[in-house]
C-alpha cells in the first residue's frame, strides 16, 4: 500500500471534461503525454493522506471511452483504489493519428503498457492491476502477454478469448459507404437533425463522441475483432491472477460459454454480475465494485511472473 498524494509528473496534466455527461465529484480529468501522443484519462483516488490498496488501469471497449466508467469510479476510490481509465487512441478526445496502421492491437497494447509505466512512476509503485472491457479486454490481454512484468493482475470484463469473422461486417460496410458520416448518425437517422439541447444528456454525449471518434480506429478495430486467434493459453502463461466476469444478461458480444471456457483454460476466477448485461461497471456498479475490490485485494502478491 502507499499513501494517496498529489501527483507531480510533467507528463500528467489537468484536462477539460469531454462531452455532456457530468463528471462525478471525486473524479479528475487528466491528459497523459506518451511518446506517441496524448491520452485523456479519468482518475479517481482515495482522499489525500489515506492509504491506497493499489493502482488500477482500465481500458474501454469498441466505440467506448473513459466516460463509460464514471458510475463505478467513486465507489472504487472509496474502497481504497487509485483508478485510471483512459480513452484509447482515436476515441473521443484522445490523440487520433491518421491511417489504420496506427490502430492495430499491438499499437493499442503499447499505449496500455506506456500508461502503466507512467502511472507506476507517478504514484511510486512497481505494477498496476489491469482491466479491459469488451474489445478493451483483447487490448489488455495483448498488453499483459507482451509485458506481464508491468501488471499485478488481469481482469477481463464482458470480453472473450478471440474475435469472430463477420461480427461487424455491417458496421464496416456502412462506414465505407458513408465516408462523411459516423456510426451514431447512421444508426440514429431520426435523431440526426435534432439540436443538442433537445436530446437527453446521454444521447448528446454519444453523438459528440461518435463524431470525434476516428474512422480509421473504427475500421481497424473491426478488423482486429475479426481475428479468431485464441490467446487463452498465452494469458495463462503470463502467470498473472485473472478474473473473467460479465453481467448475467450479457448476450451482446461474446457468448457467455466462450467466457466460461476461457476462464477454465486460463485458470481464472469466473463470476457473473446479476442485474447487468454488457456494461456491469455502469449497470450494477455496486456489486461490480465489490467483486473487483475482493479480487484485486487477493491478487496482490499472488503473481508468479518474474521480472522488474
Uncertain residue ranges: 302-308
> Please, how many helices?
11
Order of helices and strands: EEEEEEHEHEHEHHHHHEHEHH
Largest sheet: 9 strands, mixed
How far do the termini sit from each other? 18 Å
Q: Tell me the strand percentage band.
A: 15-25%
How is the largest sheet built, in terms of strand order?
2-3-4-7-6-8-9-10-11
Number of strands: 11
The gross shape turns out to be globular
Which whole number gives the mean pLDDT?
93
Radius of gyration: 18 Å
User: Helix fraction?
Assistant: 25-40%
Which structural class should the secondary elements be placed in?
alpha/beta
Written description of the protein model:
The chain has about 300 residues and is α/β, with parallel strands linked by helices. The chain contains eleven helices and eleven strands. It has helices at about 75-80, 105-125, 135-145, 170-175, 185, 200-210, 215-225, 230-235, 255-265, 280-285, 285-300, and strands at about 1-5, 10-15, 25-35, 40-45, 50, 55-60, 80-85, 130-135, 150-155, 240-245, 270-275. The strands form two sheets. Strands 2-3-4-7-6-8-9-10-11 form a nine-stranded mixed sheet, with helices on both faces. Helix 1 (about 75-80) links the parallel strand 6 and strand 7. Helix 2 (about 105-125) crosses helix 3 (about 135-145) and helix 4 (about 170-175) packs antiparallel against helix 7 (about 215-225). The longest helix has 19 residues, at about 105-125.
Summarize the structure.
This protein is α/β, with parallel strands linked by helices and 308 residues long.
Amino acid at each position: 500500500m502507499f499513501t494517496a498524494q498529489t501527483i507531480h509528473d510533467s507528463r500528467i496534466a489537468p484536462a477539460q471534461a469531454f462531452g455532456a455527461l457530468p463528471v462525478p465529484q471525486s473524479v479528475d480529468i487528466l491528459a497523459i503525454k506518451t511518446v506517441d501522443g496524448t491520452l485523456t484519462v479519468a482518475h479517481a483516488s482515495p482522499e489525500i493522506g489515506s492509504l491506497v490498496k493499489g493502482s488500477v488501469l482500465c481500458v474501454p471497449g469498441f466505440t467506448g471511452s473513459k466516460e463509460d466508467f464514471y458510475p463505478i469510479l467513486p465507489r472504487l476510490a472509496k474502497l481504497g483504489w487509485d483508478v485510471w481509465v483512459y480513452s484509447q487512441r482515436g476515441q473521443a478526445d484522445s490523440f487520433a493519428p491518421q491511417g489504420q496502421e496506427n490502430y492495430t492491437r499491438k499499437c493499442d497494447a503499447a499505449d496500455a503498457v506506456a500508461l502503466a509505466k507512467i502511472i507506476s512512476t507517478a504514484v511510486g509503485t512497481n505494477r498496476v492491476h489491469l482491466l479491459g472491457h469488451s474489445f478493451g479486454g483483447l487490448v489488455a490481454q495483448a498488453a499483459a502477454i507482451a509485458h506481464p512484468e508491468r501488471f499485478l493482475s488481469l481482469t477481463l470484463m464482458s470480453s472473450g478469448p478471440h474475435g469472430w469473422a463477420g461480427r461487424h461486417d455491417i458496421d464496416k460496410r456502412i462506414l465505407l459507404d458513408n465516408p462523411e458520416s459516423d456510426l451514431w448518425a447512421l444508426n440514429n437517422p431520426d435523431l440526426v437533425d435534432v439540436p443538442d439541447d433537445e436530446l437527453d444528456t446521454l444521447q448528446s454525449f454519444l453523438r459528440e463522441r461518435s463524431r470525434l471518434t476516428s474512422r480509421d480506429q473504427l475500421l481497424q478495430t473491426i478488423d482486429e475483432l475479426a481475428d479468431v486467434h485464441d490467446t487463452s493459453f498465452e494469458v495463462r502463461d503470463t502467470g498473472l491472477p485473472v478474473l473473467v466476469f460479465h453481467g448475467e444478461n450479457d448476450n451482446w458480444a461474446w457468448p457467455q460459454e466462450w467466457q466460461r471456457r476461457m476462464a477454465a483454460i486460463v485458470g481464472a476466477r469466473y463470476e457473473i454480475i446479476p442485474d447487468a448485461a454488457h456494461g456491469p461497471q455502469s449497470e450494477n456498479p455496486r456489486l461490480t465494485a465489490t467483486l473487483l475490490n475482493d479480487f484485486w485485494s487477493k491478487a496482490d502478491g499472488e503473481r508468479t511472473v518474474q521480472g522488474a
